[in-house]
Amino acid sequence: MLSPQLSIVIPVRNEIVLLGEMLEHYRDLASCPAQVELLFVDGESRDGSHEYLQDRGFRVLSSTPGRARQMNAGAAAAKGKMLLFLHADTVLPETAVPALLNIARSSTLWGRFDVIVEGTGVMFSIIGAMMNLRSRLSGVATGDMGMFVRRELFLQLGGFPDLPLMEDIALSKILRRQARPHCLKPPLTTSGRRWQQRGIWRTIFLMWRLRFYYFIGVSPARLAEWYR
């Protein structure tokens, strides 16, 4: 049996309500099992997320909590040439899987998607546009941009650094030494729920503050406490 070209890794923890909303999208992602494998990695959910996915025929792995640990566990079990790390609340455009399969057959090392932040009001469009611009200028991708990377390179570099926060930025900086990220279009759509729950401006200032303190050397453990 041939190995898949693409492995999609989705970390989950206590997301049963969201999983129900996203179920058909996940089925679409898993519709070409010969070329694409879909791996959920559950971080000790207490709301039945693991059982919900398993009962509906999805492959679910178990891991200790922590996005970096969960994604690394998924990558360790994956068979695809290219790994795509996807947040549970993110919807890929219809062209994404064919584009990623082509990427897997090319020499591209890693990359990300442009992003649209879902929400009502012009501020969500501005947030998405600023995220895309920041990534283009810095060569750094965040997890809600659908980071993808060649599995061989990912394993060679040791995967995501085991950090409680900023693991995506840390890996991006390591990958940036190999190549600038390849940007795929059209954009994916990610949920604006964290901005809606905490308040748009409060969330924007919080994220700027966290990135600034990370840049000057504050430990990710301390930043994770502030984020929570």
Q: What would your notes on this structure say?
A:
The model has no long low-confidence stretch (mean pLDDT 92). Strands 3-2-1-4-7-6-8-5 form an 8-stranded mixed β-sheet, sandwiched between helices. With 228 residues, the chain is of the alpha/beta class. It starts with 5 loop residues before the first strand and ends with a helix. It is built from 10 helices and 8 strands. The longest helix is centred in the middle third of the chain and has 17 residues, at 122-138. Residues 7-122 form the Glycosyltransferase 2-like domain.
List the main descriptive attributes of the protein structure presented here.
228 residues, alpha/beta, Spore Coat Polysaccharide Biosynthesis Protein SpsA, Chain A, eight-stranded mixed sheet, 20% strand, membrane, Glyco_trans_2-like, Glycosyltransferase family 2 protein, Trfase_2_rSAM/seldom_assoc, Nucleotide-diphossugar_trans
